[in-house]
Specification:
The structure holds 2 protein chains of 2 kinds. By secondary structure, chain A is of the alpha/beta class. Chain A is about 35% helix and about 25% strand. In chain A, the strands form 4 sheets. In chain A, strands 1, 2, 7, 8, 9, 10, 16 and 17 form an 8-stranded mixed sheet that branches. A 7-stranded mixed sheet of chain A has the order 5-4-12-13-14-11-15. In chain B, the strands form 3 sheets. Chain B has a two-stranded antiparallel ribbon with strand order 1-6. In chain B, strands 2-5 form a two-stranded antiparallel ribbon. A two-stranded antiparallel sheet of chain B has the order 3-4. By secondary structure, chain B is an alpha+beta fold. Chain B is globular. In chain B, a hairpin with a 5-residue loop joins strand 3 and strand 4. Chain B has helices spanning about 5-10, 35-40, 70-75, and strands at about 15, 25, 50, 55-60, 80, 90. The mean pLDDT of chain B is about 95. Chain B contains 3 helices and 6 strands. The chains are: A alpha/beta, B alpha+beta. Chains A and B meet through helix 2, strand 11, helix 6 and strand 15 of A and helix 1, helix 2, helix 3 and strand 6 of B.
């Protein structure tokens, strides 16, 4: 039977749009179904896109892409209760083109990506929630969106981290708390000149700041701050499993406490909050992924679990774009072969394994396990603070020798835990 | 001000389009289930609360569709779907 489309893409976020863009360039008939009022309406990012891995995949995208600021100033702070220690990385190296990362806002970035994609001849339907897959004789033949039955040779599920479609296709089970984090943030508007002065930014330069330790009460995760053109993205990411364990704290309270820290309060002072958003993030890595394809179906982006936290870099969007691109390549090959079964679509996994995507996920497959260590978020920030205090303190009276002072914090039996923790970090 | 504002006020800044039915429901009989109590902690919009009888209640207005409750509590206690087409939160910045 003749199908309505070559491919139906479910979800008009980054992976869905990347797939549609790529297939349209190959002359395929593609329909994108997006449940929001526009692309980006349901999407949230912490704030930063690393462009290098995906720049050449989407040559028509960048020229007018609404990128906010290129990140030229990196900072990471270890926060203890009344103090923090900060490391800054900047200078000419980060301020040279091509810039490696930009702060972005999905409401703007995805909307523009959708426009570029639509111009290539892709049919885009917004305000359309896909409710089910049409499956005949074990093969996906299309989707049900409300009353509409829409058919295609291939469905690409780019329906986000929960991917209800991948579940319906039997390719994955509902996600587990240990493999997911939740991010929530505020957009805080600030006058452009105030923002640039406050963060020491020249022109379109931007700053990225990460905070760990007390900011999540020692739970797995951290705080983040990105400067946009005329606003700040300020938020928290915290592991969902950790959030449910002692010390019990309500998620929104973490962000309020973060905003009240003097180190942060003065950065956002006078700003006007204009939006509050939240989203689940897949962080389980390779070990927690489901199947990437089935009969007549491919899974890309967050829906397939392509997001990674390895400490100072937290990445998801470029994996979403790249997996959308490779899913499209697989669909193009399937059309050439005139075959849409799982055996043909397996080429998707092959393409991914040859790309930076699977190479990264292989390289960092032990990272979630190595980083999931309460001492990194709890004990070490405290220890680092104690050592700093004693290094800098000048008491009324004689100052103690530095080495013994430092060593008094490290109890003998803790040495083994230290060695074990840093031995674990070797795997990252 | 960006300085502390209540959660309600924060959610009031977002654009929501009303849905005719709640897209997430507590499954009947599960109101006192221990798994559901986790939602009270983890929901970034603070939409879950426990009443005097020890039952968890959900107010759907202000849902950010983040998915945290589905991950935290599971599908045995929650009937979880996205809002109907064109409904729910519409992020302007995201």
């Amino acid at each position: 039977m003749e199908k309505d489309f070559d491919v139906i893409v479910v979800g008009g976020g980054l992976s869905g749009l990347a797939a549609a863009y790529t297939m349209a360039d190959a002359g395929m008939e593609v329909l994108v179904l997006e449940r929001g009022d526009y692309s980006g309406a349901k999407n949230v990012t912490g704030g930063r896109l690393y462009v290098n891995p995906v720049r050449e995949m989407f040559p028509d995208l960048w020229k007018k892409a609404p990128l906010e600021r290129f990140i030229a100033h990196e900072e990471v702070s270890i926060m203890d209760q009344d103090r923090s220690i900060t490391m800054r990385y900047d200078g000419n190296e980060l301020a040279q083109e091509p810039y490696q990362s930009y702060s972005v806002l999905r409401g703007k970035f995805d909307k523009n990506f959708a426009k570029v994609t639509e111009r290539k001849g892709v049919s885009m339907v917004t305000k359309s929630r896909v409710d089910d897959l049409i499956i005949e004789n074990g093969k996906v033949e299309g989707v049900m969106a409300g009353e509409d039955a829409l058919t295609a040779n291939i469905v690409i599920a780019c329906d986000g981290v929960l991917s209800l479609l991948a579940e319906k296709a039997g390719l994955r089970k509902p996600g587990l708390d240990k493999d997911h984090a939740v991010g929530f943030k505020e957009i805080i508007e600030l006058d452009r000149t105030v923002l640039e002065d406050r963060f020491n930014l020249e022109g379109d330069e931007g700053a990225a700041r990460l905070y760990m330790g007390e900011v999540t009460r020692g739970k797995f995760g951290g705080g983040f701050l990105y400067t946009n053109k005329e606003s700040i993205s300020l938020g928290i990411v915290v592991g969902i499993k950790d959030l449910m364990e002692e010390p019990l704290v309500q998620a929104p309270d973490l962000l309020d406490a973060f905003k009240q820290r003097p180190e942060v309060a003065r950065l956002i002072k006078g700003g006007q909050t204009s939006e509050y958003s939240a989203h689940v993030i897949p962080e389980g890595g390779l070990h927690s992924m489901g199947k990437l394809y089935g009969e007549g179906i491919l899974i890309a982006g967050d829906a397939a679990g392509f997001s990674m936290n390895i400490g100072v870099t937290v990445r998801g969007m470029e994996y979403a774009m790249a997996t959308g691109y490779y899913a499209a390549q697989a669909a193009i090959k399937a059309k050439e072969a005139g075959s849409y079964n799982a055996a043909t679509l397996a080429v998707y996994e092959k393409l991914l394994s040859e790309s930076f995507v699977m190479k990264d996920f292989q390289s960092f497959k032990e990272a979630p396990h190595a980083l999931d260590n309460p001492r990194f978020f709890n004990r070490y920030p405290q220890l680092a603070g104690d050592i700093m205090r004693d290094l800098y303190a000048v008491p009324n009276g004689p100052k103690e020798r530095i080495y013994p002072t430092m060593m008094k914090y490290i109890k003998f039996n803790e040495m083994f835990a230290f060695l074990k923790d840093f031995w674990g970090v070797r795997k990252i | 001000m960006s300085e502390l504002m209540g959660l309600k006020a924060k959610l009031g800044l977002d654009v929501f389009k009303h849905d005719k039915e709640p897209h997430i429901k507590i499954k009947p009989g599960m109101e006192k289930d221990a798994r559901l109590k986790k939602a009270v902690l983890v929901c970034p919009a603070g939409l879950y609360s426990e009443n005097a009888a020890g039952e968890v209640e959900l107010t759907i207005d202000g849902c950010l569709e983040c998915g945290t409750c589905r991950i935290a509590c599971g599908t045995e206690v929650l009937e979880w779907n996205y809002p109907n087409s064109g409904c729910g939160v519409q992020f302007r910045f995201g």
